[in-house]
Amino acid sequence: MSFECRNLAVTYKTQSGGLEALTDVSFTVSKNEFVCLLGPSGCGKSTILKIVAGLLDPTAGEVIFQTQGTNGKPLNAMVFQEHGVFPWMNVLENVAFGLEMRGVGRQERNEISHKFIERVGLAHFEQSYPHELSVGMRQRVSIARAFVNDPEILLMDEPFGSLDAMTKLVMMEELLRIWSAEKKQVLYVTHDIEEAILLGDRVLVMTGRPGRIREDIRIPLPRPRDLRDRDKAEIIEIKEHIWTILEEEVRSSLEGSQ
Amino acid sequence: MSRHEMGEKTLLIIPPVILIATLGCLEFITRMEILPSLFFPPPTVVVSTLYRMTTEGALLEHLAATVTRLLTGFVLGGIPGMILGMMMGWSLPVRRIFDPFIAALHPVPKISSLPIIMIIFGIGFVSRTIVVAVASFFPMLINTMAGVRQIHPIYFDVAQNCGASRLQVLRRVVLPGATPFILAGVRLGLNVSLSISLAVELLLADKGIGTLIWMAWQTLRIEELYATIVTAAAVGISIRLFVQFLLSRFVPWDSKTRT
Ligand SMILES: Nc1ncnc2c1ncn2[C@@H]1O[C@H](COP(=O)(O)OP(=O)(O)OP(=O)(O)O)[C@@H](O)[C@H]1O
Ligand SMILES: [Mg+2]
């Protein structure tokens, strides 16, 4: 299973006519590949994920999925940037939501959900409502919900943005563990360069709006990776390279909007 | 924590204290004839009148008539209002189609449509219930629609991403997401229903609290006039408590709805 984005373009309808968010975005995510999307704020990263998730129709272009039978798994599951944890469901119901929608019985879906709730460190909060949780805890609820859905493609939009450094590290390790054990494609949006390099097989660096893929960088680090060792020469070298590109893009996107 | 709880308790005590203080003052002022007790019967007299009307008269029967009218009307009008409001909130085409009609009909004073309704349905129970139903239709519709529209689009995206069918979206997103607003509509709707029920009873003397008010006025029994108004106020307070119960039952997840 792999998928390919072909010449995606998106122009949002706005009051003042149209806003060109993406233009000519093409890339492929191969079987079992972990791909990170990196780019300045507003360049269209979330927009790309929504198109792949089928929540938004591109103005032009298409996404082509090569799948060999879904064996009951959903095609994709998304961790939304805004979390999207339902305020009227407790943690357990939120995490089990996808299973409930697929008609999995209560007993079974609770069992599966318990496991993932534990893994994101919320075992004592199963019965809590979101308004009783911190922002980072809500983020972990939405991560557990996506993991529980066990999709072929995992779409993650800055999933660890509100977490402290240590929790984030543990969650990243957990993500890599799940990804390598269950073999799926991951398309992962972040604005943390180091995070992108540590996690990804490839890092797609985007231009400012309208977003395009400016560079497709292969990360040659071996797997399994040690997320705690960040001072390797290769990492620093790639980091500096990406920095130079991004600095240029951020500058021009800030200037362009003046 | 304990300071907060003390604050809660104080807040709970303040309304009864104000009530009792006001009643005490009224009692004093009217007993002293500072205000003529003929037009302003002392609270204790109103209470004993209430007791007398309950035991000797048919106050409870009239109360039951009003409550029945108000609830029947509310259910007959409120549920369709809620269903249409939900469809209008959820679907732009449905909203576009019905919005002009709602905008035109909403501001018409409901009680003024009573004659037309009587021409069609006669002067009996049906007409009286229909006016109440029409009156509670609008607050339920408007509130439900607003309740659905304020649900953040992200929740629809999440539901779709998790493979929810339209029915599942309705049950797990639209309905619970709109519940705080729907219950605000229930409170408004029940209160409007109560006002219209009383107005209908005042106009078409038959049975009910409104009828009692009218009879007390015609026979100039001032203390009975006050006693019936107090009864109507009690119905109002019951509505408030009922909605409060529904909120704690159905919206335990919203910290904003606590009072
Ligand atoms: N629903 C919408 N209607 C109109 N414009 C939109 C909409 N959603 C996004 N945009 C615009 O499209 C552009 C890309 O948005 P997007 O959310 O994809 O950016 P992003 O790369 O995810 O940014 P960030 O890193 O800040 O999350 C932005 O300039 C934004 O203003
Ligand atoms: Mg984004």
Structural overview:
The complex is a heterodimer of chains A (258) and B (259). Chain A is an alpha/beta fold. Chain A has eight helices and nine strands. Chain A has a six-stranded mixed sheet with strand order 5-6-7-3-8-9, with helices on both faces. In chain A, strands 2-1-4 form a three-stranded antiparallel sheet, covered by helices on one side. In chain A, a hairpin with a 2-residue loop joins strand 1 (2-14) and strand 2. In chain A, helix 4 crosses helix 5 (135-149). Chain A is globular. Chain B is flat. The longest helix of chain B has 38 residues, at 166-203. Helices cover 80% and strands 0% of the residues of chain B. Chain B is mainly alpha-helical and 259 residues long. Chain B folds into two domains: 1-40; 48-258, MetI-like (MetI-like fold, Orthogonal Bundle), CATH 1.10.3720.10. In chain B, helix 3 (59-90) crosses helix 9, helix 6 packs antiparallel against helix 8 and helix 8 packs parallel to helix 9. The interface between A and B is medium-sized, with 26 and 23 residues. Bound molecules: adenosine-5'-triphosphate (ATP) and magnesium ion. Residues 12, 14, 19, 21, 39, 41-47, 81, 191, 209 of chain A line the site of adenosine-5'-triphosphate.
Descriptive keywords:
heterodimer; A: 258 residues; alpha/beta; six-stranded mixed β-sheet; three-stranded antiparallel β-sheet; 8 helices; 37% helix; B: MetI-like fold; 0% strand; binds adenosine-5'-triphosphate
